[in-house]
Amino acid sequence: MTEDVRRVFRMDNEVLAFRFTATVSERANMEPRERLTSSARLTMWLQATGFDVTGVSPDDLEDAVELREAIYRIGSAIAAGEQPDSKDVRTLNTVAAAGHAKAALEHERAEWHLTDTTPVGDALGVLATDAIRILGGPDRGRIKNCEGPGCAGLYLDTSRGANRRWCSMNTCGNKVKKSRLAAS
Ligand SMILES: [Zn+2]
Predict the structure, then answer these.
(1) Taking a C-beta distance cutoff of 8 angstroms, is the pair 36, 22 a contact?
(2) Which fold has domain 5-183?
(3) Which residues pair with 109 in a beta bridge?
(4) What percent of the chain shows pLDDT beyond 90?
(5) 75 C-alpha vs ligand 1 centroid, how far in Å?
(6) What does the pLDDT read at residue 138?
(7) Minimal CA–CA distance to 175: which of 184, 166, 69?
(8) How far is CA 78 from CA 22, 25, 55, 144, in A?
């Protein structure tokens, strides 16, 4: 793998499921940037996230993108105080139910053990389960879309006053600060 994962993907979202939705960036722009452009890219992202997968197929990529967009739409609906689409909820629940990953504590680190038969489906199951935990959890009222320029990425506002406006201070927050400075 020659590409540096951090140059290709935004890996800084605290919520695993939202880090996954961030594999499309600039969602508020006319042409959002798809970063999962190939099976190799999906392999790269999954491996960087701690899933030991190889041999990702084009079908796997299609499944991953379908799940990702369902998570994004449900999260955005919740952020807007709206009811999520039942088809998206079905997609999410189906992927979560199909996963066979097992968590293990190894050398003081959490690891995911995937089956040999459906490793990518198992990894997607973990992502879907994480999404369910957040989208249906006690902090669901803190799910927001980033106000950074063109971003609209999902994040969980864990700030005490629930007044965070950006998916990440390091990227979108900084962009806003810099443009304010330039304008002043
Ligand atoms: Zn952002």
Answers:
(1) no
(2) Jann2411-like fold (1.10.3300)
(3) 106
(4) 84
(5) 14
(6) 96
(7) 166
(8) 17, 20, 35, 8
Confidence of residue 2 (pLDDT cuts 50, 70, 90): low
- C-alpha 50 – ligand 1 centre gap (Å): 23
Give the span between the Cα atoms of 130 and 151, in whole angstroms.
Answer: 22
Ligand 1 centroid to residue 21 C-alpha, Å:
12
147 CA distance to ligand 1 middle (Å): 6
Count other C-beta atoms under 10 Å from residue 46's C-beta: 25
Q: Count how many Cα atoms sit within 13 Å of the Cα of residue 105 in the half-sphere of its side chain.
A: 1
Q: How far is the CA of 143 from the centre of ligand 1 (A)?
A: 13
Cβ pair 58, 39 in contact under 8 A: yes
117, two tokens: 């038969």
